[in-house]
From TrEMBL:
Subunit field text: Homotetramer.
Keyword Transferase: yes
Species: Leuconostoc carnosum (strain JB16)
Name of the protein in its database record: GTP pyrophosphokinase
Pathway assigned to this chain's UniProt record: Purine metabolism; ppGpp biosynthesis; ppGpp from GTP: step 1/2
Similarity comment text for this entry: Belongs to the RelA/SpoT family.
Signal peptide as annotated in the record: none
A Pfam family hit: RelA_SpoT
Gene3D superfamilies: Beta Polymerase, domain 2, Nucleotidyltransferase
Domain of life: Bacteria
Amino acid sequence: MDWDQFYVPYQQTVTELKVKLRGLRNQYEKDGKNSPIEFVTGRVKSQASIEEKIVRRHLDEARLSLDLQDIAGVRIMTKYVEEIYTVVELLRGRTDFQILEERDYVMNAKPSGYRSYHMVIEYPVQMYSGEKKVLAEIQVRTVAMNVWATIEHDLRYKHGDELPKQIAEQLTVLADRNFEWDQRVSEIRAAE
């Protein structure tokens, strides 16, 4: 497989989505309004990570663009939990991509304690050879949820993707406390 060629539409997807979503944030600021988008990040999954998934999930290289929905990934961070759903509604209203799937891990946390709102989208990229539809994942979460997820991911990576039970349990407790903190901050904001 020519990885350089394979990555082109995914890199373009991430770049374009980051520009568009940061542009949304800027529009709020120019109008003197509080943006529900605190900041936006994006990445294209590494070749090593894709190759590991090919082996682990017995994937066909010819079907990667269909079987891996998160090769292109964008994260939108918010300050408050309720802003997650404001952003989700903004995304649902867009006409420049199609939402294929939504998963709400904010109100329905994973057993690990992980919380985020996930959307799988089909994004049309304009290539010199014509339009190519690319699958991408958009995650929307609070800054606090992002800190927890980043630390959990780092620890999981250091332990070979399988966390010792005691560490996993401690992280779940911290995730619950983190969400409680997020909710209290939202309550304080609502009381203003």
